[in-house]
Amino acid sequence: MEPGRKNLLGKIVCSLLFYATFAVAVPARSTAQVPTTAWHDGRFQVDVPGVLSRSAIVLDQPNLQPEQAMPLGNGRLGVAVWSENGLTAQLNRADTLPARLSPGEVVIPGLSALTQAKDYAGRLDLYDGEFHEQGGGMTATVSVLPDTDTLIIEVTGANPNDPQTVLLRLWAPRTTNATVSGTVGILSEGWKDDKNPGASGRAFGALSAMTAEGRSVSLAVMDPLTVTLWVRPFPDGHFRIVVACPHYDGKRDPLIAARPALSVGADGHRSWWHAFWNRAAVIKVSSKDGSGEYLENLRNIYLFAAAAEKGDEYPGSQAGVADMLSSARDRHRWDSSAFWHWNLRMQTAANISAGVGELNAPYFNLYRENLPTIENWTKTYMEGRPGACIPETMRFDGQGIEYESQVNDGKIPGVVGRDCDLGTYPFFNSRTLSTGAEVGLWVWEQYLVTNDREFLVQNYPVMASAARFLLSYEKPGPDGLLHTSPSNSHETQWDVSDPTTDIAAALALYPATIEAAKLLHRDADLVQQLQAALPKIPPLPRTQLTAPFTLLSPADDAAGEDMIAESYLPGAKNRNGENIGLEPIWPYSLIGDASPLFELGKRSYAHRLFPWDGGWSFSSIQAARLGMGSEVGATLVRDTERSASCVNGFTGCSGRAASEPRSVEFYVEQSGVASDTLQEALVQDYDGLIRIAPAVPTDWDFEGSVYVHGKTKVDVQVRAGVATTVVIESGITQPIKFRNPWPGLPVDVVSGKTGEKVVASAVGPIVTFNGAAGVNYLIEKHGTPTASQQFAPIGGTPAKEARKLGPVQLGLFPAQ
């Protein structure tokens, strides 16, 4: 949910998803005298399965609590698996709106013989997309198939003479329909979104169906919420449980809807996950204290979770919460029908730079599909203005409504927040005006990285509509500039003048929209308006480094005693802990190492009001943009130790009341921030200039890749803060410009296709060459050929135990 609400209402309900890691071994640094390189045969070579094996989650004791659940999924069906009552698996989907109700829970009590065995071992294998358990001569492998929304539980080593019992159940106050048809048991329920504020009237539902492969399968309805299955294992002791959980809106016959997902194979998920990981940019981090490995592990867990809970029509995560990986039954701390953009932005960014921008499809669809509704909402509640004021907290149907029926766990009456509404009371996002601009900028960024013109054609209307709204809201002042008031500085300052978010939004969105419109030959009139408005955007507000905060001017930069303020009313009350003064650095990319405001940005970071501002804090990304490698490492470790309390790498598990075993919700925000930070530390390209290792902590060694503008991937190896191998894989024919990774030294650019030097002995801080589509280019120091280094592909060895970082851990260590 929104960061502010989390702090102010004290509602961070923590989910202790304990992802057991078959101990990620921490490889020692090489002591060889001859340096190694992954460049060989004209390409950068990575053993992807080897690297991913380092990040498996290892369990050396059973994960008996729901907050220790392991996540699985295929993007539409998400599952949380833990060892309570043998084996328990909660089914989740993103399309059971508005309350995101679970389709059911599977329980296999007979697997207690496995989970209670003295030789128990468990492992979440990220590369194969499987959760494995073994003990007492039995094994269980759990997976979700990619093409059908099917959960598979494969068991071996069971006593063939003992029938196994499997429960498919729900819980009060659900009112499902439990039925049996032959060897299939079904729970189904349909409803309409017709009760809460902003109800869409759409039909939704939830369906789960169970069968088994074994001998003498039988089922019975035990009560309106429970179906029980009995199966005798095959003579060799194996049996399989198949659970279908397809999309369902209550209109179709449940058995017909479920049947395609009940007759399936068992291992198609492996090739699906292998393809995903070979498409994603891999990053390996090594450090003497193990902190780098921990963050590498966290990034891989994030990417795994992002794929597992991607969503279909809408994003799987709606408030930074990993809803589709939940083990909390139907509990949702925040309005489960609404989306918080602030808690989606880090995920969107991380996916783009990791080369898996397809995971952002539901995010872009959310705003593109609802654009007519958003424009109508804007016209109705923003005094007839044109364009789209995209609500920061937006219902899935495009309305700017957040309905919290259980504020402070029911101790405070429900409240309704209305965003992009000039007629409502001041509230967290009532007048947050910059969300549409940021959505539009993510459209532009994904286009720049993928070079997907069709994607831009489809999503450009969001950019244009957001720009039209901002233009319409700006009012000329006596100074000849365009001002926005009343407007929120996101959730931190309410109804102030010229928030930094508005100024940054206009300064970033207007040029991007102009460029996109010209590229697509669209909206010449809008281009003219934006060009005319740009010189009239006020400068970013400045204030003192310490209180009391008053408004300063750009002329005060010379003294070096100012920083960027939240708005033109710097002394206004802060109602949340967001560092709004850092927004121009990231995500708006207005301040970088070539900006005249770079020193101002660094002061703003050093004196930010909230050094610790929640698991969603973007400080580490902003530190990377400012080239602060040591701060990147320190901030990542600090934020992880303070928030990533779940053993699966998620946040939200600290502070759970013992009396509320199902109160935990998993949050994916902090791991998303960590993922994007590692990528930004290794490679940056926010303005057409590639920066190599701009913010790598000197005590961490990096090896890996990042996707940048122009459908291009940059591969880098860094030792002690210095790049040792640099490769640019050009995805299209284009000019490529990069900052010299070895300042003051001449560099060569070598074609991996021909072996010839495209650029020889280039000097200067920036090097430019013409890249050809599909060609890999090696960047090396002149006179120090990479070929003289020993070849060693980037790889790794499988994790063998859980990881620990200060007070937090990934996986479960042996019981004491």
Shape: globular
What characterizes the major β-sheet?
Answer: 9 strands, antiparallel
Please give the radius of gyration in angstroms. 27 Å
Please give the number of β-strands: 43
Range of helix content: 10-25%
The assigned structural class equals alpha+beta
Low-confidence stretches: 1-32
- Main sheet: which strands, in order across? 4-9-10-11-12-19-16-15-14
Mean pLDDT: 93
- Rounded to the nearest angstrom, the distance between the terminal CA atoms is 37 Å
* Percent strand: 25-35%
Figure out the total of helices: 17
Architecture overview:
- The chain is of the alpha+beta class and 816 residues long.
- The strands form 13 sheets. A 9-stranded antiparallel β-sheet has the order 4-9-10-11-12-19-16-15-14. A 7-stranded antiparallel β-sheet has the order 5-6-7-8-13-18-17. It has a 7-stranded antiparallel β-sheet with strand order 20-33-34-35-40-37-38.
- Helix 11 crosses helix 13 (524-533), helix 15 runs antiparallel to helix 16 and helix 16 runs antiparallel to helix 17 (669-682).
- Residues 1-32 have low confidence and may be disordered.
